[in-house]
Amino acid sequence: MGRLPTLVLLLFLCGCSATRPTPWHGEQWASTVLPSLAGPSLAVDDEGEEVEDDDSDSVLGTVLLYLPNRFFDVLDIVRARVRVGPGVGFDVRATQLADFFIGSYWSIYVGLPGPRGRVIPVLPAGLETRTGLEVSVVDATIEGFNGPDYGTGEFGLGFQLLIIGVDVGVDPLEIVDFAVGLFTFDIQDDDF
């Protein structure tokens, strides 16, 4: 899943949490949430000990990668793929808790791939396969090559009919990620 830290930070930013969010990914929450221009700060190592951390590299990286990160954040919002390949399938999504898929297809896709869910960008073309049945959190599908990798909060629908298919969607969490990204926050943990 990998989305639990995003949910924790989102609750924190919404004021739903009265405590500091739990650290994630190498205990570096402070350098992600509160970037500092003031030089060395304290970080937590793997043993839970506070150590001095020089943020000068992260500040320079944040400045240099600001525009590419915002560009990819915008691309993460929308999925609009056309698929060509054999198969029959149908899916509808209203977040990962309310989704349905049935079918089997093997296809070549082209278009906007949707949420990355990781730092590395997803190519706008590639191979995609999916077979099985999924109802809400019960997932009995097998995905190969580049599966559709739907976002946690994504709403959308798709179909594959014999040789042609379409997959469209929008992820409101990615809209929030873009908006807070303007202030260098990264709640989806997908910035470079």
Question: How does this structure look, described?
Answer:
The protein has helices at residues 4-13, 29-33, 56-64, 66-77, 172-181, and strands at residues 41-44, 50-53, 78-94, 99-113, 125-135, 138-145, 155-170. The chain is an alpha+beta fold. A 5-stranded antiparallel beta sheet has the order 6-5-4-3-7. Mean pLDDT is 79; it is low at 7-41.
What's the layout of helices and strands?
Elements: H1 4-13, H2 29-33, E1 41-44, E2 50-53, H3 56-64, H4 66-77, E3 78-94, E4 99-113, E5 125-135, E6 138-145, E7 155-170, H5 172-181
Antiparallel strand pairs: 1-2, 3-4, 3-7, 4-5, 5-6
Helix pairs in contact: 4-5
Number of helices: 5
Largest sheet geometry: 5 strands, antiparallel
Record the strand order, biggest sheet: 6-5-4-3-7
Shape: elongated
Number of domains: 2
Number of distinct beta strands: 7
Structural class: alpha+beta
Q: Poorly predicted ranges (pLDDT <50, ≥5 residues)?
A: 7-41
Q: Roughly what percent helix?
A: 10-25%
Rg, Å, rounded = 19 Å
Q: Mean pLDDT score, rounded?
A: 79
